[in-house]
User: Which sequence fits this backbone?
């Protein structure tokens, strides 16, 4: 069995364990994304060298582990980096318009390259800081994976949320102190403990909403 076949089988098993039904073409795209990420990381250092042998669990399946909690509609991925979790989610959810913003130009160039290569019509990469984003619009979902503290996250995304928006922040260990520091105008919906296939590390998903986003 080739390494490519082995990777595909492992990916298919991981998706099944996450309860996700993903068509064969999307699995092809996830594998192609992983290959591009490895290729570009050698030059642009998109992810740490020690992470490159663990892309499937630590990055792709980890990103997809939040899919069951996404609401229908649009998604804004803040501090997307190499497109995580935005690109894997866009691949398995072609019905969802995914906007990804990051302040590092090389990472946005990579996301654009992936979009062109895989012909992803549902992504919109933006170069800049979320605090300086001037585009109007309310999103159904706003995600962050390695952006900042929960307090900084909810403060930065307030202009792009209404009372129906779900905020999904991915964390490692249970973020007890960050939860205690949340502003009073933030509604904590739930903290889900995530089980990511092949990943032996704590993962939590903090889900929040802003009942009255523009007024404290």
Assistant:
């Amino acid at each position: 069995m080739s390494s490519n076949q082995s990777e595909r089988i492992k990916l298919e098993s991981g998706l099944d364990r996450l309860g996700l039904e993903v068509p064969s073409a999307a699995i092809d795209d996830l594998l192609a994304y992983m290959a591009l990420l490895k290729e570009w990381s050698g030059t642009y250092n998109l992810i740490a060298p020690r992470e490159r042998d663990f892309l499937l669990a630590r990055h792709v399946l980890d990103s997809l582990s939040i899919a069951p909690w996404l609401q229908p509609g649009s998604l804004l991925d803040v501090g997307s980096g190499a497109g995580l979790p935005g690109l894997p989610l866009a691949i398995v959810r072609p019905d969802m318009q995914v906007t990804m913003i990051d302040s590092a130009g090389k990472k946005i160039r990579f996301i654009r390259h992936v979009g062109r290569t895989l012909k992803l019509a549902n992504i919109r990469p933006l170069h800049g800081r979320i605090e300086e984003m001037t585009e109007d619009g309310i999103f159904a979902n706003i995600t962050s994976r390695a952006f900042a503290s929960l307090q900084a996250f909810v403060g930065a995304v307030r202009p792009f949320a209404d009372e129906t928006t779900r905020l999904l922040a991915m964390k490692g260990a249970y973020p007890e102190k960050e939860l205690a520091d949340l502003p009073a105008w933030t509604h904590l919906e739930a903290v889900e403990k995530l089980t990511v296939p092949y990943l032996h590390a704590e993962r939590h998903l903090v889900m929040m909403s802003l009942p009255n986003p523009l007024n404290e």
Remarks:
- Residues 3-209 form a domain with the Rossmann fold fold (CATH 3.40.50.150).
- The mean pLDDT is 94.
- The chain has one domain: 3-209.
